[in-house]
Amino acid sequence: MAISDISHRKRYLAEGNVYLPHIAVIEKIVDETPGIRTFHFNFKDEKLRKEFTFESGQFGEYSVFGTGEAPFCISSSPTRRDHLEFAVQRAGRVTNALHRLGVGAEIGFRGPFGNSFPLDFLQGKNLVFVAGGIGLAPLRSLIWNVIDKRDKYRSIDIIYGARSPDDLCFKYDLEAWEKDTTVKMTTTVDREAEGWTGNVGFVPSITEKVAPSPKDAVAIVCGPPVMIRFTFPVLEKLGFKAEQMITTLEKRMKCGIGKCGRCNIGEIYVCRDGPVFSFAQIQAFNSDEY
Ligand SMILES: Cc1cc2nc3c(=O)[nH]c(=O)nc-3n(C[C@H](O)[C@H](O)[C@H](O)COP(=O)(O)OP(=O)(O)OC[C@H]3O[C@@H](n4cnc5c(N)ncnc54)[C@H](O)[C@@H]3O)c2cc1C
Ligand code: FES
User: What average pLDDT does range 100-126 have in this prediction?
Assistant: First the structure.
């Protein structure tokens, strides 16, 4: 089965007008790094709270009323239904406004939108997760999803890097994965830092050092474009084919549902047809994405 067969499956969409946000309440805020916060939230409407489903890799359009709306992936796993999470790196207008909110604040949510990581395709495979910085947000949803159904997958390799120890996100997850004997976890930082005794080096070169085998494997890579651009060639050198490498594209978006034409690459709408694509698909778009 090819990844493209799976990504066009019909998906759950919350009832109602897709342009009208559902009201959600922030229940908890976690400071991940100096510029990144995770928000735990739940819908105000009880029916929606019970019925809402999503898949790892999907995103929502989140709004701060009076400021604007921006897309963020759902960073929690659909296997853990008590609440939803998204992580926000401060960048501009909406992200700064989100960082100013406190517990109890109301936000808007439209979605879930987009395709998702192809779980059917990943089943029975050796999985290699490669992430940098906030790029771990979409991957942690998938990693917990896979760990919660551990017997469906083979080995799990996680390679994660950030600029400095302070910039490592989701430290509580990293600790849990370190302790999990069924997971091989490698963490790295770009430069030597006081008190840091772990790996030092950029994610692509650490990936080359870890040298995951391409046999029956799929690599899922998320992070800053520069990291992805240098990681794909490393994986190719290790023997991974373009169909065995998956990533998410983060185009600027507005509607989230394939209507406004803000996020297209040729005939592809990243919000509707993506954001998850294999490297083979990206190459076929004939674009300069990576
Ligand atoms: C599908 C998808 C999922 C995403 N998931 C996350 C996530 O989980 N966590 C997270 O922190 N961010 C995520 N992003 C990026 C996030 O949407 C942008 O950072 C956000 O829209 C910026 O909004 P703003 O109003 O604060 O910034 P603006 O004031 O609009 O812009 C501030 C700066 O950020 C740049 N910028 C804005 N949007 C993007 C973008 N999409 N790509 C590159 N640069 C951009 C602008 O060019 C500008 O330099 C995701 C984007 C997409 C498309
Ligand atoms: S964001 Fe409107 S078409 Fe994709």
Answer: 97
